[in-house]
Amino acid sequence: MLFNLLLIIIGLVLLIAGGESLVKGAVGIAAKARLSKLVIGMTVVSFGTSSPELLVSLQSAHEGLPEIAIGNVIGSNIANIALVLGVTVLIFPMPVARNTIRYDWPMMMIASVLFYLFAFDLEIQRWEGILMFVSLIAFIIFIIVQSRKSNKVESLDMPEIEEKPNNISIAKNIFFLVLGLIGLYFGSYWLIKGAKSIAVDLGVSQHVIGITIIAFGTSVPELATSCVAAYRKETDISVGNLIGSNIFNILAVLGLTSIVSPIAVKEFVLSWDLLWMIGIAILMLPMMLVKRKVGRLSGAILLAIYITYIVTLF
């Protein structure tokens, strides 16, 4: 038990350091590539912070543990909005870019509904996984092209975000980014390993382990990255990271996992957990529309919802 607690502590330290390095590198690359920081958050940072979910889900599917694979994705998506966004805006209320409401949130909803429809027959098949992944590639291409067209408009659209000059070379920015991803990977791995061992010792079911302990563990990169981004007032990285991570979790993590091996879905997941995930995603829209800023009250509500959901599971 003591060894597992030590693994969790080391994992958390690595995640916080990795989050700081990842944000620094991502913002620098955004400036050099003349892409908006929102797009960097939606792509590079989101993929980096979603890599633990991908690795856990692939391993779970390979070992014949579909409950952990599905629970990991659903639990992470719920945690990203209700826990991570909630905690982040309590630190620093976040202004919301127009393109987040126009493109990113709708894509998250499309991905969520697609997940529900594909899971309706209680199995996500290979062709459905392929369709998910192709949809993700198309969306990434779309937002990069859109960013190139509207970069100047977007920078004017976010007056609260201070644009800082970036004098660091592209090689150093890539180094910070890679260093951050490595920290997030090993930090997540050790945190999950320690948390899973403790949960097993306590006799918790695979579904609950997947949707709580492992989902929380794989969401800690988003929590660390978003909190650091909010503290540094790089808030479009924070918003883009969370929405992008949810899109990646469904279209990339579930998509690729189901391509490797079709994933079975339990009926209670369809009638309970997935509905919570979709409901929380819907709730995010009015919070973003009010003064185009997610404030501390919204953060408190989201955090209360997450606590309520976890309590209902037990």
Automatic annotation (TrEMBL):
Gene Ontology annotations of biological process type: intracellular calcium ion homeostasis
Domain of life: Bacteria
Ranges in a coiled coil: none
Gene Ontology CC annotations of this record: plasma membrane
Subcellular compartments: Membrane
Transmembrane segments: 68-91, 103-120, 126-145, 174-192, 204-231, 243-264, 270-290, 297-313
Keywords: Membrane, Transmembrane, Transmembrane helix
Protein name: Sodium:calcium antiporter
Gene source species: Brumimicrobium aurantiacum
Organism lineage: Bacteria, Pseudomonadati, Bacteroidota, Flavobacteriia, Flavobacteriales
